[in-house]
Design brief:
By secondary structure, the protein is α+β, with helices and mostly antiparallel strands. It contains one helix and eight strands, in the order αββββββββ.
Length: 144
């Protein structure tokens, strides 16, 4: 038995390739900005969660240790820390993730009984690329 080769070559033509490239370009033009906005929101939520975690840890550690515990924010570096004396109990560098931190006070302190120590409310703003979350801490240390 003899095999006969087909002389028709399989492949794609230049117009088919142009259409495929155009569709890929249009799809990516729509998807990339949405993905960027999604990652922006996700990073912002993560940073806000880190700040809320610091604010939750501080009163618990103040009662547990029986001493004053402070949440210290550094707006220039975008860093939030929970400190007790010379010990750093919790630290997150939000600036490394492209987040900015704005605080109305540099620190918030909790007394050994777990209540806020100081006479002013504090507002913390975590922001990234035009989006922002605001956290308010009352005089008694309640987080809203």
């Amino acid at each position: 038995m003899r095999y006969v080769r087909s002389q028709h070559r399989q492949g794609i033509t230049l117009p088919e390739l142009a259409v495929a490239c155009t569709l890929i370009g249009l799809t990516s033009a729509i998807a990339v900005p949405r993905f960027s906005a999604f990652t922006n929101r996700l990073t912002l939520r993560s940073g806000t969660s880190d700040v809320r975690t610091a604010l939750a840890i501080a009163p618990i550690q103040a009662v547990r240790r029986g001493e004053f515990v402070a949440v210290v924010g550094d707006a220039t570096r975008g860093r939030i820390r929970v400190v007790s004396g010379a010990d750093t109990l919790y630290s997150r560098d939000l600036g490394a993730r492209g987040l900015t931190l704005a605080l109305t006070r540099d620190s918030i302190t909790w007394s050994p009984n777990g209540q806020g120590w100081g006479a002013a409310n504090t507002t913390i703003i975590v922001a990234r690329r035009g989006a922002a979350d605001t956290i308010t801490v009352s005089r008694l240390g309640r987080v809203r």
